[in-house]
Amino acid sequence: MKYALSDAKLFGCRQSMDLAKAIAEEYGAELGQVNFTTFSDGEFQPSFEESIRGRRVFLIGSTHPSSDHLMELMLMIDAAKRASARHITAVIPYFGWARQDRKDKPRVPIGAKMIAKILESAGATRIITMDLHADQIQGFFEKPVDHLFGSSLFIPYLKSLNLENLTIASPDMGGSKRAYAYSKTLESDVVVCYKQRQKANIISHMELIGNVEGQNVVLVDDMVDTAGTLTKAADVMMERGAKSVRAICTHAILSGNAYERIENSKLDELIVTDSIPLKQKNDKIRVLSCAGLFAGVMQSVQNNQSISSNFIM
Q1: Beta partners for 217?
Q2: Distance between CA 273 and CA 297 in Å, rounded?
Q3: Looking at its record, which EC class is this enzyme (predicted)?
Q4: What would the pLDDT profile of 60-107 be if each residue is shown by its tens digit?
Q5: How far apart are CA 253 and CA 83, in angstroms?
Q6: How many H-runs (helices) and E-runs (strands) does the chain carry?
Q7: Which helix (H) or strand (E) holds 183?
Q8: Contact indicator for 255, 226 with CB cutoff of 8 Å
């Protein structure tokens, strides 16, 4: 039986099921049925409950901790390969382990490279992801990678706020390129925070490069983990005379005391996507859905169409 280009199958991993359902709705397809058998010791086995022979399958799942989420995606990729799927596209809204993109000291792994090799070895023939921690991670793959930008969601939202005296800020030196890209589109000023870490997730000192007095500041970053950097940056900017401080972070990891820090911070709001489901509600956190963005790109990939219109920067 020969299938038309529209005959793709969409499946969701359990950790991203709400987002997978939203993507399927935007795509205009039913989400496929996957059953999981879980053994007493925690081992699990996915099983596709419909034929995918000769089809393109989209497997939707972020790989945020725990490592079971990555393992679930890999098992589903392998199952699809062994079920004779024609193409296996791993849709990974949040690509975990991306902070390990280089050797920053002796005797440490390059985790992002290892994950890329594992996904390809499992059988993934294409990757669709969003706002990688480092752009060069795309080069860790030998298969095509569609790297989407959360800016296509955030910039329209920022424009809708009609903020006067807008200044874009980077919470660290590493994010300055992203901040400048936003500022170019929004025609705003840029400031950068310089921070020194005592150790991972603990900041010992922070300085501000630039003037924020009387400005409505928007911090931009790819992820927010403990929220220590963002809340510290917001405090520094308000002390320097900023009128308001907001933050945009694509991936809301929000571990440890992050929710408490955000609630007690001087941030007006934290704007994130649903690439990772929130653990709890918070009045300061606004979620913009990335379902439409991914669904549109998936349709273009399936129909061999250009996806360049999905990139704002």
Answers
A1: 167, 245
A2: 17
A3: transferase
A4: 999 999 999 999 999 999 999 999 999 999 999 999 999 999 998 999
A5: 33
A6: 8, 14
A7: helix 176-186
A8: yes
Asked about 195 being catalytic, the answer comes back as: yes
Which one is catalytic: 195, 243, 281, 284? 195
> What is the rounded CA–CA span in Å between residue 191 and residue 44?
48
- CA 230, CA 233: separation in Å to the nearest integer? 5
Tell me the three state secondary structure of residue 108: coil
Backbone phi and psi for residue 204, each to the nearest 5 degrees, phi listed first? -95, -30
Helix (H) or strand (E) holding 185: helix 176-186
Residue 264: CB partners within 8 Å, gap ≥ 6?
A: 231
Instruction: Say if residues 237 and 169 touch (Cβ distance below 8 Å).
Output: yes
Q: Find where tokens 């994950």 sit.
A: 115
> Whole-model pTM?
0.93
**What SS3 state is found at 43?**
coil
Q: How far apart are CA 208 and CA 210, in angstroms?
A: 6
Distance CA 94, CA 272 (A): 12
Q: Is the peptide bond before 66 cis (omega within 30 degrees of 0)?
A: yes
Q: Which two tokens stand for residue 108?
A: 């440490």
Domains of the chain in start order, with CATH, are 9-148 (3.40.50.2020), 151-289 (3.40.50.2020)
Contact 212, 241 (CB under 8 A): yes
Supply the DSSP string of 122-160, one letter for each residue.
Answer: HT--EEEEE--SSGGGGGG-SS-EEEE-THHHHHHHHHH
Q: Which helix (H) or strand (E) segment is 180 a member of?
A: helix 176-186
